[in-house]
Design brief:
Chains A, B: This is LacI family DNA-binding transcriptional regulator. 2 copies of one chain form a homodimer. Chain A has 340 residues and is of the alpha/beta class. Chain A has helices spanning 4-11, 15-23, 30-43, 49-56, 72-87, 101-114, 129-135, 160-173, 189-204, 222-233, 247-259, 277-280, 293-312; strands spanning 61-66, 91-96, 118-121, 141-144, 154-158, 179-182, 212-215, 241-244, 269-274, 287-290, 321-324, 327-329. In chain A, the strands form 2 sheets. The first copy, chain A, has a 6-stranded parallel β-sheet, sandwiched between helices. A 6-stranded mixed β-sheet of chain A has the order 7-6-8-9-10-12, with helices on both faces. In chain A, helix 1 packs across helix 2, helix 8 (160-173) runs parallel beside helix 9 and helix 10 (222-233) crosses helix 11 (247-259). The longest helix of chain A has 20 residues, at 293-312. Chain A starts with a helix and ends in an 11-residue tail after the last strand. Chain A binds chain B through residues 1, 44, 46-51, 53-54, 59, 69-70, 72, 75, 78-79, 82, 91, 93-94, 96, 109-110, 112-115, 136-138, 222, 251-252, 254-255, 277-278, 280-285, and chain B through 1, 44, 46-51, 53-54, 59, 69-70, 72, 75-76, 78-79, 82, 91, 93-94, 96, 109-110, 112-115, 136-138, 222, 251-252, 254-255, 277-278, 280-285. Chain A binds a DNA duplex (30 and 30 nucleotides) through residues 3-5, 13-20, 22-23, 27-29, 32, 47-57.
Chain lengths: 340, 340
DNA sequence: ATCGTCGTGTGAATCGATTCAACGGGCGTG
DNA sequence: CACGCCCGTTGAATCGATTCACACGACGAT
């Protein structure tokens, strides 16, 4: 393997000069620079980032830890983050916590070992334990899709309470009085907030918590949705509408209802969350709460970059909590009007 | 930041001993080991992988470069690869080439800089140029979803010619005589192979290439499918069936046909490719060619691990080309029988 | 003639963990 | 008692790139 010393020998200069050609080309004479550059090309030299990072103290990679890349919502978040990082010449290492606090802790430990420059994190652990542990390493991080507890970190989130209020208000306005909430793992903040918003909308309509049957699931995917729908069909007094904590669940619910011959939206209305691309292409196009996923990723990336820049310039950094607003997209899955 | 020297001082031992506790705990006395371990815990020491890798020569990360993580097919491949890597204690860095040869080259350069332990690669460049360039670095790699040109590398792929033959044979058997092929970027091997298979099935049915109208697209996503469907509807002599190079395209086609009031499958049958989870949940459940995506990822990971193990033991490694077989899943989007 | 400055280059110290030759002490054996 | 051996530990060399104090020559100003 070719190292910087080989290049230096080939070009007839010192290793310091080769390093300068790579990192501050303006400091070296044109003629010398050309000689070094062609030596690099001829030998096929690739610099070793480990040596570099050992010296400079940190790497040029940021870590992104999301709940599940199987959810197109997070794919969009990742796309946004990657774009922001790219513009600053940083690489992104994407990992899945699979909504598990222990996997989250494992990946955060990996990031710490790697001395990543910063982290974008969608916490799986609502207690904040793993995040608190991670803070000790002193690696800058930004929370994504979750508001920080204090103001000790930046965060970008979408108002989940507002989003679910929109969704459920839409249902109560159509006359629904008895709803189901297909939720998800209770330890996720998003799941809790979306319940809060749903209850708020019910209260507006003069309804109490008894109007909302919660159907929790272990995961947030299509299979869990199918499973929840089976439970839904078995309920003694069947609700007339289902609010799902995300679109994957909603698609699963839709599939099972369809197979059971339940007409959507006539017999059962469905609202999803996230408005992933597949929601519009579903058997019955899904009404859903749209979240600005890519924008969230980009913004989170930018906040992190700001913090890094401040750190490098020795300036003070004020943490910011950005909250974006969701938007209800009405489609066929809720279009029927309820009788009474 | 805490370094190994701090731990050594705290535990009252030399740095060599601390390193031994971390890497070969059996060589150190129980009492000493415990002292070092608690020093590590108390100080919150995290070892610096850059220093480690500088010394040992390579990292414990493998690179995975896929065409598009927006395609659930590749998410499944990644899941499989990650699992295989995890079992061997390796991390995975996932990147998207976005089907672009230049982005592919960029990410491969990043992997080379990082001295990743190995690479799993779905090439975007059918010419094999970027792959050939990458070979120079001497980093082991395995091709995924693509058979290698020679036998100079391992590969895991699914027989695309067989898969598309299945798909199109299914259509001709149902009486279709005039088909469209919504393809994709011509520089992808998969796209070419799937055309070859389609033409083979047509030939079996006594039909020539004129029976297949190709509608190429620039990308392989839902939006491109919508766009292709618009062109499809504008054709002078409208085909009765569409074969799409993947499910994302098929979902886009379905959406546009639906909006235009074209009945699927009565007026137009659709076959997709990949059998992603969303294909079954579509407006009209899609007939699709199922590929063993997760298995492909796992297998590719295992082949790479085998190669790495051989390298470490100084053994000879024989490259293998594994070809998996796809399977046709028939659903409603092709269920109508053609008249003549 | 002297001094300062500028533009280029050099070479050694440095980052943190790993590894290995060497060492010391305890024990058993001849 | 002397010797060899094993166990556990030490300390220094090493990996490759970066960085910085310094050197060197040329040139201009005084």
């Amino acid at each position: 393997m070719i190292v910087i010393k080989d290049v230096a020998r080939r070009a007839g200069v010192s290793v310091g000069t080769v390093s300068n050609v790579i990192n501050r080309p303006e400091r070296v004479n044109d003629e010398t620079r050309r000689r070094v550059e062609s030596a690099i090309a001829e030998l096929g030299y690739v610099r070793n980032v480990h040596a570099r990072h050992l010296r400079v103290g940190h790497s040029r990679i940021i870590g992104l830890l999301v709940l599940d890349m199987g959810n197109p919502f997070f794919v969009d978040v990742a796309r946004g983050a990657e774009q922001a990082a790219r513009e600053a010449g940083l690489g992104v290492m994407v990992c899945n916590s699979n909504q598990s606090a222990s996997e989250e802790a494992e990946y955060l430990a990996l990031f710490a070992e790697q001395r990543v420059r910063g982290v974008l994190l969608t916490p799986a652990d609502a207690t904040g334990r793993t995040v608190a542990d991670f803070r000790r390493h002193g690696i800058p991080f930004v929370l994504v899709d979750r508001v920080g507890a204090g103001t000790e970190e930046c965060s970008v989130s979408v108002d989940d309470v507002a989003g679910s209020t929109l969704a459920v208000r839409h249902l109560t306005a159509a006359g629904h009085r008895h709803l189901a909430y297909v939720s998800g793992p209770a330890h996720l903040q998003q799941i809790q907030d979306r319940r809060t918003g749903a209850l708020a909308a019910l209260a507006e309509a003069g309804l109490g918590a008894e109007a909302l049957v919660e159907l929790p699931t272990r995961t947030l995917d299509v299979a869990a949705g199918r499973d929840a729908a089976a439970r839904l069909l078995g309920l003694p007094r069947r609700p007339t509408a289902v609010f799902c904590a995300n679109d994957l669940l909603a698609l699963g619910v839709l599939q099972t209802l369809f197979a059971a011959g339940v007409d959507v939206p006539q017999d059962m209305a469905i609202v999803g969350y996230d408005d992933i691309e597949f929601a519009a292409a579903a058997a019955v196009p899904l009404t859903s709460v749209r979240q600005p996923a890519t924008a969230m990723g980009t913004l989170a990336g930018k906040l992190l970059l700001e913090e890094l820049a401040a750190e490098e310039d020795g300036e003070e950094h004020k943490h910011r909590q950005v909250v974006l607003q969701p938007e209800l997209v009405v489609r066929k899955s809720t279009l029927a009007t309820r009788r009474g």
